[in-house]
Automatic annotation (TrEMBL):
Homodimer. SUPFAM superfamilies: PLP-dependent transferases. This is Histidinol-phosphate aminotransferase. PANTHER family: HISTIDINOL-PHOSPHATE AMINOTRANSFERASE (PTHR43643:SF3), HISTIDINOL-PHOSPHATE AMINOTRANSFERASE 2 (PTHR43643). It comes from the Bacteria. It comes from Pallidibacillus pasinlerensis. The gene is hisC. Residues 25-347 form the Aminotransferase class I/classII large domain. The keyword Lipoprotein does not apply.
């Protein structure tokens, strides 16, 4: 605490990201990164731009990247917003669409950045309890006084709502913005982008960090009707005109264009996930049905914290949340087949099989 801190600084409770150890010898299954490198076309595009032009500012409108995304998602470029990771897009959205004094709804077990933004902006919020089986209770999200935000699929549970369920939430919040955070949608969920023409209150947020292997470049996007996107532009241009740098702009474009590579790598991850889920079930783990690139699991008898600590001793990092209702679980990102074999071998040792 410093006497120089503003009231906001004093009272904010920042988000704590998963550990980011820099050693290359560890197996990193703790922050839902993609185990495969970005498309070779992305790397080529970046290398071509590493030149003297870096002295120039990037495009403040990111028009090229937006056009590419618009084509891919079947919307027009005025329906696309891009930002420095979806975290930034989320931060702008909370400020752009939610008002203090009007309670917003999000699940009690969800992405832990949501309460951080809500507190930072002085928003009132209700943490709607997930059902016993960790599914999102759709009706509890109806008629929010301030708006709604939830990830689909949810994190850290990995469970997805159907498009029909997402639509019910939209129908029952017509006067408020409903934000669907689709960070993990490409690993098996149904995207709400199909509903954009029908719902002016829908904002879909996606990221290139997960299914397009670009966590290190920080590229996120939002899709929705033109007025919502214009709102986000107003907020962005009140903070920083150049949120994406020159390299990120070309990397994002190349990543979205290389559909073959995207499909190949995400299918590999889905196949690995299904195989590992089955192996874990055979080892007496309770495994939630994941539509993401991670598994949320609990062993029948061995405590999760112990599993987390023992794996860490062996250089295998997974995520443990010391939080009510989920402290019996650990979250494991899907790595390569080889990494997951090492993980399963270590797990067998820990649980004594
Ligand atoms: C649900 C959810 N939303 C958003 C993000 C942020 O992703 P990024 O800022 O890398 O785009 C994450 C990252 O783990 C996430 O789990």
């Amino acid at each position: 605490m410093s006497k120089f801190w503003s009231e906001v600084t004093k009272h904010t409770e920042p988000y704590v990201p998963g550990e980011q150890p820099q050693s290359t010898s560890i197996i990193k299954l703790n922050t839902n990164e993609n185990p495969y490198p970005p498309s070779p076309k992305v790397l080529k595009a970046i290398k071509q731009l590493v030149n003297g032009d870096l002295r120039l500012y990037p495009s403040p409108t990111a028009a090229d990247l937006k056009l590419t995304a618009a084509k891919y998602f079947g919307v027009n470029e005025k329906q696309v917003f891009v930002g420095n990771g979806s975290d930034e897009v989320l931060a702008f959205s909370f400020l752009g669409f939610f008002n203090p004094g009007e309670e917003i709804f999000f699940p009690d077990i969800t992405y832990s950045f949501y309460p951080v933004y809500a507190n930072l902006y002085g928003l009132n919020y209700r943490e709607v309890p997930l059902a016993e089986d960790f599914t999102i209770p759709v009706e509890q999200f109806f008629n929010s006084p301030g708006g709604v935000i939830f990830p689909n699929p949810n994190a850290p549970t990995g469970l997805a709502l159907s498009l029909d369920q997402v639509e019910q939430i939209l129908q029952h919040n017509r006067e408020k913005v409903v934000i669907v955070d689709e960070a993990y949608i490409d690993f098996g969920g149904e995207s709400a982008t199909a509903l954009i023409p029908k719902y002016e209150n829908l904002l879909v947020i996606q990221t290139l960090s997960k299914s397009r292997s670009l966590a290190g470049m920080r590229i996120g996007l939002a899709l929705g009707n033109e007025q919502l996107i214009e709102g986000l532009e107003r907020i962005k241009n009140s903070f920083n005109s150049y949120t994406l740098d020159r390299l990120a702009l070309v990397a994002g474009k190349a990543a979205i264009e290389d559909v073959n590579y995207f499909n190949e790598t995400r299918e590999k991850i889905i196949n690995t996930r299904e195989r590992v889920a089955k192996e874990l079930k055979d080892l007496s783990f309770h495994v939630l049905e994941s539509k993401t690139n991670f598994l949320f699991i609990r062993h029948g008898t061995v405590p999760s914290q112990l599993i987390y600590e023992k794996l860490k001793e062996q250089g295998i990092y997974i995520r443990y949340f010391n939080k009510n209702r989920i402290d019996q679980f650990v979250r494991v990102t899907i790595g390569t087949d080889e990494e997951m074999d090492t993980f399963i071998k270590a797990i067998k040792q820990i649980i004594g099989k």
